[in-house]
Each structure stands twice: as C-alpha cells, then as structure tokens.
C-alpha cells in the first residue's frame, strides 16, 4: 500500500511543487506541473521512484563542503494525480498543490496553429503565482517576518 501521508511529509519538508516553463525542443514555450524532491539520501529517492513512479537525476555538487544529491520528479498529469492523493495531508505546500491542480485542469493541447495568446498569458500568470508561492526568504514584511 502506498503511504501518501508519508509522501506528503517528504514533499512538505524536502520538495517543491510548481508550474514550470521550458522551451520544447528549443522552439516552443511549454508550461507544466512538476513535483520535485531533492535529498542526499539515495535510498529515499529510489524508494520514491519505486513507490510513486517518476524520474531520478543525480546532481553532483560544485561546492566541496556540500554532499552530492539525488532528485526525484514527476511531471504533468502524473504529478497532478499524485498531488490529488497527497493534498489532504499537505500542510506547507498545500497552496502550491491546489494551484498546480487548477492549472492542469485548464491545460489543453493545441495543434499546428499553436497556443492562442490569451491562453499563453493565462499560463504565464499561473507560472508567476507558482514562483511567488515558492519564493525563498522574507517576503515584504515591515517587521521582518514572513507574510503571505
């Protein structure tokens, strides 16, 4: 049995959920949902892949004081399927998960004519909201504390 509560804890503590963008085959801009967990424990990352699918990537550190790390990620529809299962257990990353699920519901494939400008603008707005939710550090509080 898959342990979605445990996975939610890992994602809350070590993961990132968001709407990302990249060039598709160097030409077209594409937007997609991705769930990522990075950790120095190879055992944990391989456990994630074995139990929840996805892909693994090894990342060698450039700083000799840091350990090398492993990354696990799941994209698009598979990511959203997973997010729906962990959503009730997420605490820290619940808002990111909800935004990502909402984004994926709106995704539609377009043919040779390409994606209409208004759809690209909407996707970009999801991307910007996602970036803000995942922003590190202190965000705009006059007292120096974190704000939403």
Q: Could you explain the architecture of this structure?
A:
It is built from 5 helices and 4 strands; from the N terminus they run αββαββααα. It has a 4-stranded antiparallel β-sheet. The model is unreliable at 140-148 (pLDDT under 50). By secondary structure, it is α+β, with helices and mostly antiparallel strands. The protein has helices spanning 4-14, 42-52, 76-86, 94-106, 117-133; strands at residues 15-24, 28-39, 55-59, 69-75. Helices cover 43% and strands 23% of the residues. The protein has one domain (4-133): Roll (Endonuclease I-creI).
Mean of all residue-level pLDDT scores: 88
What is the CATH architecture annotation? Roll
Low-confidence parts? 140-148
Please count the beta strands (DSSP E, at least 2 residues each): 4
- The CATH superfamily turns out to be Homing endonucleases
Count of discrete structural domains:
1
How many whole angstroms does the radius of gyration measure? 17 Å
Broad shape: globular
> What percentage of amino acids are in beta strands?
15-25%
As for the CATH topology, it is Endonuclease I-creI
């Amino acid at each position: 049995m898959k342990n979605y509560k445990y996975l939610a804890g890992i994602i809350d503590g070590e993961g990132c959920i968001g709407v990302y963008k990249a060039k598709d085959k160097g030409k077209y801009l594409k937007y997609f949902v991705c769930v990522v967990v990075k950790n120095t424990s190879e055992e944990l990352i391989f456990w994630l892949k074995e139990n929840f699918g996805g892909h693994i990537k090894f990342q060698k550190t450039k700083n000799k004081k840091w350990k090398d790390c492993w990354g696990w990620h799941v994209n698009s529809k598979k990511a959203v399927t997973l997010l729906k299962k962990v959503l009730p257990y997420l605490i820290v990353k619940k808002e990111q998960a909800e935004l990502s699920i909402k984004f994926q519901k709106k995704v539609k494939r377009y043919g040779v004519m390409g994606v209409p400008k208004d759809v690209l603008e909407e996707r970009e707005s999801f991307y910007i909201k996602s970036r803000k939710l995942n922003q590190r550090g202190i965000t705009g509080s006059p007292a120096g504390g974190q704000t939403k």
